[in-house]
Amino acid sequence: MSDNKHNIQPDLIRLLFVDDEKDFVEVIAKRLSKKGFGVTKAFSGPEALQAMRKADFDVVILDLKMEEMDGIEILKILGKMAPGLPVIMLTGHGSEASAREGAKCGAMEYLTKPCDFEELVGKIKQVLKR
Amino acid sequence: MNQENRLKDPYYKSLTRKMLFIVIAVSFAPLIMVSGIILNRFSVSYNEKLNAHLGELVLKHKQNIDGFLLEKLNTIRFMAKSFTVEDLNNENFLRNNLAALQTEYGSVFEDLGVINEKGIQVTYAGPFKLENASYSDAEWFRKAINSDYFISDVFLGLRGIPHFIITVRQKSNGKPWILRATISFVAFNSLVENLRIGKTGFAFILNNKGEFQSKPSFEVVHGKSYSFYESIKTGRKTKDGIFFSEMADDSGKEILYVASLIKNGDWILIYQQDKSDAFSDLTHAKQIALLIILTGGMVIIVTAFLLSKRMVARIAQADGEKDLMNQQVIETGKLASLGELAAGIAHEINNPVAIMVEEAGWVRDLMEDEQFSSKENKDEFERALAQIKTQGKRCREITRKLLSFARKTDTCIEDVRINEVINDVISFCAQRAKYSNVIIKSKLQENLPVIRLSNTEIQQVLLNLMNNALDSLEKRGGNITLTSWLEGDEVVISVADNGPGIPRANLARIFDPFFTTKPVGKGTGLGLSICYGIVKKMGGEIDVRSVVDAGTTFYLRLPSRRND
Hints:
The complex is a heterodimer of chains A (130) and B (564). Chain A has five helices and five strands, in the order βαβαβαβαβα. Chain A has helices spanning 22-34, 45-54, 71-81, 96-104, 117-129; strands at 14-18, 38-42, 59-63, 87-91, 109-112. In chain A, strand 4, helix 4 and strand 5 (109-112) form a beta-alpha-beta unit. Chain A has 130 residues and is an alpha/beta fold. Chain A has one domain: Response regulator (Rossmann fold). By secondary structure, chain B is α+β, with helices and mostly antiparallel strands. Among the domains of chain B are: 83-188, PAS domain (Beta-Lactamase, 2-Layer Sandwich), CATH 3.30.450.20; 195-278, Beta-Lactamase; 409-564, Heat Shock Protein 90, CATH 3.30.565.10. Chain B has 14 helices and 17 strands. Chain B has helices at 3-8, 10-82, 85-89, 91-105, 139-145, 185-193, 226-233, 275-278, 280-367, 375-406, 418-435, 455-473, 504-507, 527-537, and strands at 109-115, 121-125, 149-151, 163-172, 175-184, 202-207, 236-237, 242-248, 254-262, 267-274, 413-416, 438-444, 451-454, 478-487, 490-497, 541-547, 551-559. In chain B, strand 7 and strand 8 (242-248) form a beta hairpin.
């Protein structure tokens, strides 16, 4: 089930998935786990930061708009906590403006919701190559 | 509301009336005031000048008449003193002297006579047979014999012809005698007769009993009466002794009288003239002024009427344009609100759709581990899951376009790929085109350079052009073709339809604000003017070509490299 196309072993990739939409996080986490990724779920900014303190991650997938703490705010803190950590922004707005905003704060890629799962997996592998 | 109906509104009718009233009042007030003041001053001045002139005239004639009488009296006095009564009693001598007087004074002296103390004319030189005529009972004789000199009133006497006499009394051997001269009435009357002014001005002389001493040229309305004489003397008197008065006749006609006492107050010289005749020049001037005021007034009223109508029409037009602008603002506001609503909805829908699509994907992932007894069922599962994914993508596209459209109008300048914007606009209009039987085609040149401009604004322009094209094809359907290509440094976009076209007369005005050929309420006439403004702001050009019954094409030229 692991994808060895690019000589990357997905079961070694640790993902932190941050989104306040619980149902979405659950199903994506299940799919990613089946693909061999290790997925830690966080449903808010504080939860995500707590998870960051407890463990290391290879990629963070972060929703832009969350109620408790904005994605941009979390992005800035992540940048200080773990500089160079690849972050993929997930946004429901789909505007280049929000992508630019994220890029300024350190996000490497962005995807619009609802995103293509294969595209998401592709982006994860892409950011790891850099 | 069209212009015609707007002008029928009570508000605009009232505004027209008020404006008309104000313009007329403001124009008439100074006209009447100035005219009134000038006319009044002119009247007063004219009155004064006229009275002064007439007074001077009457005074001059008074002096002439008094001078005449004095001169004739002095002549007789000289004769009486210079010659003895015996000389004068010689008829030839008297006749020669009369001839000498007539040579000198013309026909003024009619005759000469010497009268004794008994009133008998003992010597006579003249045309009548009055030798030895007796004047003992004549009133004039009684006055003359008791005065050094005497000038009588005009009377008929023994000769039966109007005349008056001058007498000088002398004494000889203690007995009085009188040298008498008869003055020609005609000669005397001519002094008064030549005082004529205007059509009705003339003069005459009355004695202190109100009896005529001269022959008036016209009828004297008030007749000869003592009361008239007294009335004249009660008039306004100047320091030169001139009397001014006015009296009305029975018909109400006002008559001017200017008078002066002559012959030491025994007689009065009266000048009479109809007031209307005396002031005819002033009356004429007033009539001209009135005509000018009336004519000017008519012009003011007509001009005020036209001016107020036109101004109110312009105000109504401006109000109409303001209403259209407000309508446009409200519609824009509504659109913005709708946009925000759409954005909110789109954003909210994204999450459930994402979950649905991912759950379908998860089912698909799990299916990979399952062994299906029925291949048909497995195929059907896969088909259904694929369908969920497809419809999820479709939802994503719809929300993406909604969000794109609902983005607040900002002038954020960015690199824009024009073909993407064109395709977005085509998508927006696809539904409407379908229901209007309009086919939208595009011929977009690939790899066009980016243009630095506001995505939202160029989208707005293209959307407007598309909507206009769809409006023109609404009834019968047709084709709209969007084309893009590069010409030098400019990216050119054309929006062409095969609709009814735009008449030549309207083409020149197509970008004018508020110009519209759509029915009332269907368009504000601002769409193309806004487009024009936006394109100009971008440094581009917008143009139109149209042929009636063939179609219309709009061209946008946008600079591909632009430094802000």
